[in-house]
Predict the 3D structure of the following.
Amino acid sequence: MNYNLIAPFYSDLAMSKNEYLDGVDAFLVTSLSGFEVTTYLDIGCGDGVRTIRLHEKLSCPSTDGVDLSTGMIDKARANLHGPSDISFYQINTIKDISGEPRDLVTMLWNVLGHVPEESRLQFLKDIRKKVKKNGLFFLDVNNYYYYRYGPLRVIYRVIKDKIFPPQSFKSGDLRFRMKIGSQDIECTGHIFRPFEIINLLKKSGFVIEKLEYIDYNNGTSGTQIYSGQISILCRN
Ligand SMILES: C[S@@+](CC[C@H](N)C(=O)[O-])C[C@H]1O[C@@H](n2cnc3c(N)ncnc32)[C@H](O)[C@@H]1O
């Protein structure tokens, strides 16, 4: 999916999911209470608005935001006003991220859903190398069992997965078109079964500390697997 095409309209898109994004950030910040973050890395930082906000909320002395899209990185740099302890730069792979492992690494709003299935485990293993020992990794991904995707459809998915445990997760791959500004843009992404993302994180070596389901429309947190998108805090 080409985020360079979306970059000019990204702030409007994010605004339309404001309550969800704020709900995720609130869950993250509350979960970090008592944990000192001196180095913070945001992977797939997009326009940098949330990176900057979290950097301030966490009173972090040093923050980096990285993204595959040059258009997004240009936006993020434009959102920095004056000298700052935040730097934004473009990457092609996780190996392009410089510096020592960080206290906190985030990957916000289904960034992992843009990584192909066959590369996801290695991608997470590479990310783990960027997190300090005992440091934290936080991500949110979209949920294949979220009830607002259609209650009947979700019941069918759950029953089907129970009877025929999936060998591949390709059925979570989405392809659709979105009218953004005057453009009709092809969008792709993957939505995750809760057990799928939990197993991937465990296989990559992370320990899961907290998990909540956050409603995509109003940002409320829940513990039922159908109640929202999946937010997970992990420890290295
Ligand atoms: C839905 S946006 C989320 C942006 C930001 N995290 C936020 O919450 O506003 C997904 C972002 O992930 C970036 N992205 C996708 N695949 C990536 C990868 N492999 N490495 C780094 N960034 C990636 C895209 O360019 C896009 O900016």
About this structure: The pocket of S-adenosylmethionine is lined by residues 3, 14, 43-46, 50, 67-69, 72, 108-111, 114-115 (CB under 6 Å). The mean pLDDT is 96. The radius of gyration is 17 Å.
